[in-house]
Design brief:
Helix content: 25-40%
Structural class: alpha+beta
Order of helices and strands: HEEHHHEEEHEEEHEEEH
Strand content: 25-35%
Radius of gyration: 25 Å
């Protein structure tokens, strides 16, 4: 049903762009004498779905139709999961902190995947890998593409290993390997770092924080950083009874309770 609604709108948009859509020449209208008595009830007969799209599908459609995510981002809640498995942030590469030729591993979501064929008839691809802070072009040349092509797809969350290439003020990665991380179980024993201003550390909020942590039991320690008004900070390691599963669901619950900047 959702697909039918989208297809109907896209068909109308395409016709409009091609100059083929004229409201007053549609069935049931006379452009000289005004509306006739023909039945016009089917002109805009597009059923509006009653249910909600799945978040992943909704975000993919937003990106496809608008060129950006509006209601959220596919990586929300997964920052620490990807950061624990990558060794370099995309922003560091873009800011020039990583030398040309260095081999790095970055994590993010693939966008604008374009498949090509070189002069020898060998397939290869280019894409953009993006995290919540930035994006960089990644190039899958024939030998690498032959090994990883099955996982090179729009909206795939991946880890990419490659060499930094700088040419004509353009920075890209020449991919050597690609892996699809298992995000269902988090990152095992990596500690979860939570940041909270001391002024907001009320008994009520601490109680709700405990409820969130208890709802996500697992092997990871929780480190709570308390920030004082004078800029000083104090790190606490929470009780072993509050160990958690470092997952996207946990990150989302923490952000909902403490705000988007609560993760250290």
């Amino acid at each position: 049903m959702h697909a039918e609604a989208v297809d109907a709108v896209m068909t109308t948009k395409k016709a409009e762009a091609d100059g083929q859509f004229d409201l007053f020449s549609a069935p049931g209208f006379d452009t000289v004498d005004g509306p006739d008595e023909a039945d016009t009830t089917g002109m805009f007969d597009v059923k509006v779905p009653e249910g909600e799209w799945e978040p992943k599908h909704r975000l993919a459609l937003e990106r496809e139709m608008l060129g950006l995510y509006v209601s959220g981002h596919p990586l929300n809640g997964l920052e620490q999961v990807l950061a624990s498995r990558a060794d370099t942030a995309i922003t560091k590469i873009l800011e020039g902190d990583v030398p040309e030729g260095a081999t790095v591993t970055v994590g993010g979501i693939l966008a604008t995947v374009t498949r090509r064929v070189n002069k020898k008839g060998e397939p290869w691809a280019s894409a953009q890998i993006e995290d919540l802070a930035g994006g960089i072009e990644v190039l899958f040349f024939p030998r690498t593409y032959a090994a990883v092509s099955i996982d090179v797809a729009e909206d795939a969350i991946v880890l990419v290993k490659g060499k930094v290439n700088k040419r004509d003020d353009r920075v890209s990665l020449f991919v050597e390997d690609l892996a699809v991380p298992d995000l269902s179980g988090g990152v095992g024993g990596a500690p979860v770092k939570v940041v909270l201003e001391s002024a907001r550390c009320t008994p009520e909020r601490v109680g709700k924080l405990k409820e969130v942590l208890v709802a996500h039991p697992g092997p990871s320690e929780v480190h709570l950083t308390l920030l004082a008004a004078n800029g000083a900070s104090h790190v606490l390691r929470l009780d072993d009874g509050l160990k958690v599963q470092n997952s996207g669901a946990l990150m989302g619950d923490l952000k909902a309770l403490l705000g988007p900047r609560c993760l250290g």
